[in-house]
Write a structure and sequence with these properties.
It is built from 19 helices and no strands. By secondary structure, the protein is mainly α. It has one domain: Up-down Bundle (Amino acid/polyamine transporter I), CATH 1.20.1740.10. Helix 7 packs across helix 15 and helix 16 crosses helix 18. The relative contact order is 0.20. One of its GO terms (cellular component) is membrane. Keywords: Membrane, Transmembrane, Transmembrane helix, Transport.
């Protein structure tokens, strides 16, 4: 039993599977496309919202240092992703990497985890996008009909038609092809980055030096609901950490980390990249460097424009401009946030469909979903199925409480990929690696430690929900995946001749 649960799929076989005509994705992406995808999915509501939250509750002007700390934690994971994506340029990201290094059951677990992470992430972002659009409509004097707007505070039978419509439109774009998706993403990312740059440049002229005093706030009570107000931490360590000084910076880092979630989605497009050995590391690391730089600059500017204690939690950037007598920028920032969320939603949906497609091609899910469109060469079946499911989910469900599952799922994937780099280095030292993670095993071990620390900072309720989803995944694997995987069928074919007394292989 244990030998079948941890059977690995050879890297060479994974690459050969990508060459089967009925299951081959079209290679059309460049390093620039990948970088744009990364920036497109990373820069979302995090930078427009979390800056005010952590500055007010945790780090004050030192929020910039919190972004640096979170960026370093992500960089550790990004180095591991870059090696895997260039060595195993196959759709599926952490799922495929785990199959090659840890075995089938760990691969299934991480694939099941990613399906949930990307599905909830897409739905949550779609609902957030709908909220921004409705806010802009209200400013223009337009109001959504009752029951068709945001689900927050609505009656039980309401349906967020804007959120559902966005998911369905993006599903159609992804079915048509990756190149079209890349072009649309490039346009939207250009708008989004322009908004961020306007905030930085315009805000720089409104900075007051007194607002940086104190740069690191003194001790204050831990606010209810903060990342350190966690029963799990108190249960494991027997103490409730203070939220001040240097510790406040690390607390803030555990919160703003979630503004970086998304660079790992770039790895899911490895199979559709023209030169993955060269371009995947550039896309993953390049997008992370760009976003970290922008985040740090924005946090420095916004805490310089308005004292951290006066920053708003819901819209700190927009409200900081209002407080300095420039209300026009508030609408401009809201518009940029709404436009920018479309790419976040699309790229998360892209990542989920590629993981689902890879699991189907390996037989762990029905092979019906692994056939590509004869014209567009995209995995249209899982894209349509998941798009419809997520559209319904986004329309009917207020997902604020479930959103934390996106975070724990991402961190869990980081841990698995880092461990996989160490194992594959030892089990397959002969593999050609266009990019090599430096200082192995030190960097992967640091990545595991950083991810586990951030996971510990999540509420206990999130761990319970995550455990329930994982238990359901184990059930599906043992009832279907273990006996239907291509590796299982291949082993059965090899063992049958000897069992039958010398039959023909």
């Amino acid at each position: 039993m244990s030998s079948t649960l941890f059977r690995t799929k050879r890297v060479e076989q994974s690459i050969r599977d990508t060459e089967e005509p009925e299951h081959a994705l079209k290679k059309s992406l460049s390093a620039l496309d990948l970088t744009v995808f990364g920036v497109g999915v990373i820069i979302g509501t995090g930078i427009f919202v979390l800056t005010g939250t952590v500055a007010k509750d945790n780090a004050g002007p030192a929020t910039a240092l919190a972004f640096v700390a979170a960026g370093v934690a992500c960089a550790l994971a990004a180095l591991c992703y870059a090696e895997f994506a260039s060595t195993v340029p196959v759709a599926g990201s952490a799922y495929t990497f785990s199959y090659a290094s840890l075995g089938e059951l760990p691969a299934w677990i991480i694939g099941w985890d990613l399906v949930l992470e990307f599905a909830l992430g897409t739905a949550v972002v779609a609902v957030g996008w709908s909220g921004y659009i409705q806010s802009l409509m209200d400013n223009a004097g337009w109001t959504m009909p009752a029951g068709l707007g945001s689900r927050e505070g609505a009656d039980a039978f309401g349906f967020d038609i804007l959120a559902a419509a966005l998911v369905l439109v993006l599903t159609g774009i992804l079915v048509v092809g990756m190149k079209l998706s890349a072009r649309i993403t490039s346009i939207v990312v250009a708008i989004k980055v322009t908004v961020v740059l306007v905030v930085i440049i315009a805000g720089a002229f409104l900075i007051k030096g007194d607002n940086y005093d104190p740069f690191i706030p003194k001790e204050k009570p831990v606010p209810a609901g903060s990342s350190l107000d966690s029963p799990l931490i108190q249960l494991m360590f027997g103490w409730a950490p203070s939220n001040f000084g240097v510790m406040g910076i690390f607390t803030a880092a555990s919160v703003v980390f979630f503004a970086f979630i998304g660079f790992d989605v770039v790895a899911t497009a490895a199979e559709e990249t023209k030169n993955p050995q060269r371009d995947m590391p550039r896309g993953i690391l390049g997008s992370l460097v760009i976003c970290t730089t922008l985040y740090v600059l924005v946090s420095i500017v916004v805490t310089g424009m308005q004292h951290y204690s006066e920053l708003s939690v819901d819209a700190p950037l927009a409200d900081a401009f209002k407080a300095t007598g420039h209300p026009w920028f508030a609408g401009f920032i809201s518009f940029g946030a709404a436009v920018g969320l479309t790419t976040v939603c699309m790229i998360l949906l892209l990542g989920q469909t590629r993981v689902f497609f890879a699991m189907s091609r390996d037989g762990l899910l029905p092979r019906f979903f692994s056939r590509v469109h004869p014209r567009f060469k995209t995995p249209h079946r899982p894209t349509i199925l998941l798009g419809v499911v997520i559209a319904v989910l986004a329309g009917f469900t207020p997902l604020t409480e479930l959103a934390a599952l996106v975070n724990i799922g991402t961190l869990f994937a980081f841990v698995v990929v880092a461990i996989g780099v160490i194992i594959l280095r030892k089990s397959r030292p002969d593999l050609p690696r266009a990019f090599r993670t430096p200082w192995v095993p030190v960097i992967p071990i640091l990545s595991v430690c950083a991810s586990l620390w951030l996971m510990i900072n999540l509420p206990a309720e999130t761990w319970v929900r995550f455990a329930i989803w994982m238990a359901a995944g184990f059930l599906v694997y043992f009832l279907y995946g273990r006996t239907h995987s291509r590796l299982a069928r291949g082993e059965a074919a090899e063992e049958q001749p000897s069992a039958g007394g010398g039959g023909t292989p």
